[in-house]
Amino acid sequence: MTYPSRFFCLCDPGQVMRPVMCTRREKSSYTPPPAKYGGRHTVTLIPGDGIGPELLNHAQELFRFCCVPVDFEVVNVDSSLTSEDEINNAVTAIRRNGVALKGNIETNHNLPPSHKSRNNLLRTSLDLYANVMHCQTLPGVQTRHKDIDIIIIRENTEGEYSSLEHENVPGVVESLKIITRVNSLRIAEYAFRQAREKGRRRVTAVHKANIMKLGDGLFLQCCKEVAAGYPDITFDNMIVDNTTMQLVSKPQQFDVMVMPNLYGNVVSNVCAGLVGGPGLVPGANYGKDYAVFETATRNTGKSIANKNIANPTATLLASCLMLDHLGLHDYASMIRKAILRTLSETRLHTADLGGQGTTSEVVQSIMKEVQKGGPLTSEKI
Amino acid sequence: MASSRALLSLSRPLQTVWSGRLGSTVKVFGAVVPSRREKSAYTGQSIPPPARYGGRHTVTLIPGDGIGPELLNHVRELFRFSCVPVDFEVVNVNSSLTNEDDINNAITAIRRNGVALKGNIETNHTLPPSHKSRNNLLRTSLDLYANVMHCQSLPGVQTRHKNIDIIIIRENTEGEYSSLEHESVPGVVESLKIITRNNSLRIADYAFRLAREKGRRRVTAVHKANIMKLADGLFLQCCKEVASGYPDVAFDSMIVDNTTMQLVSKPHQFDVMVMPNLYGNVVSNVCAGLVGGPGLVPGANYGRDYAVFETATRNTGKSIAGRNIANPTAMLLASCLMLDHLKLHDYATMIRNAIHTTMNETQLHTADIGGQGTTSEVVQSIMRHIQSGGPLTTEL
């Protein structure tokens, strides 16, 4: 068998509008990444802190039960260390495998500002420029709003999260928000392509260009330019404050939303709150060559760690997104159906949804649903 | 008394020029220079601005664009009907002109009168970036550093959440709204977010003092210090320092994304919130959405010497302008806040009670809250309630 040649392509962002260079990791949803070593994929697993480890254990348990052909390479990142070795190891592992599933790594506020957020480092090193969160009301979950179906595409590498701050004069801090033309074009292009692939009608750009005329003005302009190339999709824009107000009163008007980093953070959290909380929504970070899956709202959940009360739905749905990404669609839909059946029919809810179930009970119930669904489980084989 | 007032009024032009020029943040912890507009509690509770010319106040009125002019006309009509001793000095600001004379005239008028009631002035996106937002210019020139929005559910308005009572205090002059942007390299824009120690201490102090005065138990600082360690870290640290001087008020902090998520699921956990400019914008709009929409909540901008009142969410409402369907509640409640600021509490309570009666008992709602009433019908109803409430109207 040919030795798979792994090279990670350090493409510069200037290549956005030219034909995309083909690499082994071309993730345009046409070619799955290569399965290695006898048909089994290897995926990096970063447990993180708080509820991450226990939930990812459940994900591993579920995968073993369902005989999913995925092996996990576990890389621990200790958030209390100041050296960046551990996170660099994790980044190397992801470069090797191409796909990762992670829990959130805690950022300690008491450490000096030179200690950067590990999650942020990971995202920027791997250039995971698009954070996609598909917010859907799940059947069986009681919420104040019904029928929400919004895809939020958030720029993941620049904007307010550039970590460039300085204090020229004592007592005056300047924090730089960077918006670049290439990144804005790239994320707008991603958003419209996703909208077209998923058959969506409308893309809304969220901005604050009345105040930040150059910064968000550039973002908006890039979105308009890209929109011109997709005449089948309607494009409009909305200021972020009006957007959040509309979201809490009439969220059904939104279809696909694209926005810079900080607004994406706020809007995605508002939407997560609308569909039932942080325990229900999975998120995905896509780059040109890599993909990392995690919960959408990136909570560490320190206060509920190890109490067996965390909601595993978000992490498990994120693992289903990962399986879809790897091309293992049958396994993904099998697990997803089992999760939805547990939520809606069995109504086994954890405490954050107002129920009484524990994490392990929910996972057991999902496994039972999977078993009922078909023959492919480790019990029968 | 009258002679000393006359004497002071002669030195007033000099003083307003001088104090307006400085507007500096250096004075936060030094001895505050007494001015005619001394609001030592920053909430306008201690010394009222001078009533001039026979007991009638003069207030600057800036109609703005969109629904501003019609709603402010209703306010004037209501004040005339209720015999409120306030005269309005109308200053028009044309948002399409590029020179800054109009807004400078408005600022001078506010410096003269001390108090203003305004509609939102539209910012045209298509004009070049050198054309700054007029509202922002007004806020920074007058150093209106605190934007206070008291978000309360009105019982008669149908909302998904009941009994919300949150005070949001938002830093109004710096943060992301500094309008300092540049494009050093073509295609790369750097936008500066400025956080200063003085302004953060000032707004935190304002928040805790307001919490104490209103008998509130808890102040929550909203930030994103895990990512913006220096900037929001400084803000958070200033809040902590000020909190230590107010042991009777509990202090905690929350990251902005978690805050917005908690707001849509469990808004009752919040009491008083203090935050920098952009988060304040988003959070106040979320709260406005929770209590029923932009037509219901009034907002106030306080500075050391001046106060400007407007709707909390600062909407221009171009699409509903001139159609008699806008909700006048926010603007009318803002005018009540202004009357409270001018110490005309009786009038303020009278109008506020009438508004609440119309909202809750008569249930005459405009289209934005699901009703069928027009703006004029709502205002007429409020006037009827005032008339039935007591003798002080022009009909008699």
Automatic annotation (TrEMBL), chain A:
Pfam families: Iso_dh. PROSITE patterns: IDH_IMDH (PS00470). Its main location: mitochondrion. Keywords: ATP-binding, Magnesium, Manganese, Metal-binding, Mitochondrion, Nucleotide-binding, Transit peptide, Tricarboxylic acid cycle. SMART domains: Iso_dh. One of its GO terms (biological process) is isocitrate metabolic process. The keyword Membrane does not apply. Residues 42-366 form the Isopropylmalate dehydrogenase-like domain. GO terms for molecular function: ATP binding; magnesium ion binding; NAD binding; oxidoreductase activity, acting on the CH-OH group of donors, NAD or NADP as acceptor. InterPro entries: IsoCit/isopropylmalate_DH_CS (IPR019818), Isocitrate_DH_NAD (IPR004434), IsoPropMal-DH-like_dom (IPR024084). One of its GO terms (cellular component) is mitochondrion. Its cofactor is Mn(2+); Mg(2+). It is found in: Mitochondrion. Regulatory subunit which plays a role in the allosteric regulation of the enzyme catalyzing the decarboxylation of isocitrate (ICT) into alpha-ketoglutarate. The heterodimer composed of the alpha (IDH3A) and beta (IDH3B) subunits and the heterodimer composed of the alpha (IDH3A) and gamma (IDH3G) subunits, have considerable basal activity but the full activity of the heterotetramer (containing two subunits of IDH3A, one of IDH3B and one of IDH3G) requires the assembly and cooperative function of both heterodimers. Belongs to the isocitrate and isopropylmalate dehydrogenases family. Heterooligomer of subunits alpha (IDH3A), beta (IDH3B), and gamma (IDH3G) in the apparent ratio of 2:1:1. The heterodimer containing one IDH3A and one IDH3B subunit and the heterodimer containing one IDH3A and one IDH3G subunit assemble into a heterotetramer (which contains two subunits of IDH3A, one of IDH3B and one of IDH3G) and further into the heterooctamer. This is Isocitrate dehydrogenase [NAD] subunit, mitochondrial. It comes from Pygocentrus nattereri. The gene is IDH3G.
From TrEMBL, chain B:
The keyword Mitochondrion applies. The keyword Mitochondrion applies. Keywords: ATP-binding, Magnesium, Manganese, Metal-binding, Mitochondrion, Nucleotide-binding, Transit peptide, Tricarboxylic acid cycle. One of its GO terms (molecular function) is NAD binding. It holds the Pfam family Iso_dh. Its cofactor is Mn(2+); Mg(2+). SMART domains: Iso_dh (SM01329). Regulatory subunit which plays a role in the allosteric regulation of the enzyme catalyzing the decarboxylation of isocitrate (ICT) into alpha-ketoglutarate. The heterodimer composed of the alpha (IDH3A) and beta (IDH3B) subunits and the heterodimer composed of the alpha (IDH3A) and gamma (IDH3G) subunits, have considerable basal activity but the full activity of the heterotetramer (containing two subunits of IDH3A, one of IDH3B and one of IDH3G) requires the assembly and cooperative function of both heterodimers. Belongs to the isocitrate and isopropylmalate dehydrogenases family. PANTHER family: DECARBOXYLATING DEHYDROGENASES-ISOCITRATE, ISOPROPYLMALATE, TARTRATE, ISOCITRATE DEHYDROGENASE [NAD] SUBUNIT, MITOCHONDRIAL. This is Isocitrate dehydrogenase [NAD] subunit, mitochondrial. Residues 58-382 form the Isopropylmalate dehydrogenase-like domain. GO terms for biological process: isocitrate metabolic process; tricarboxylic acid cycle. GO terms for cellular component: mitochondrion. SUPFAM superfamilies: Isocitrate/Isopropylmalate dehydrogenase-like. It comes from the Eukaryota. It is found in: Mitochondrion. PROSITE patterns: IDH_IMDH (PS00470). Heterooligomer of subunits alpha (IDH3A), beta (IDH3B), and gamma (IDH3G) in the apparent ratio of 2:1:1. The heterodimer containing one IDH3A and one IDH3B subunit and the heterodimer containing one IDH3A and one IDH3G subunit assemble into a heterotetramer (which contains two subunits of IDH3A, one of IDH3B and one of IDH3G) and further into the heterooctamer.
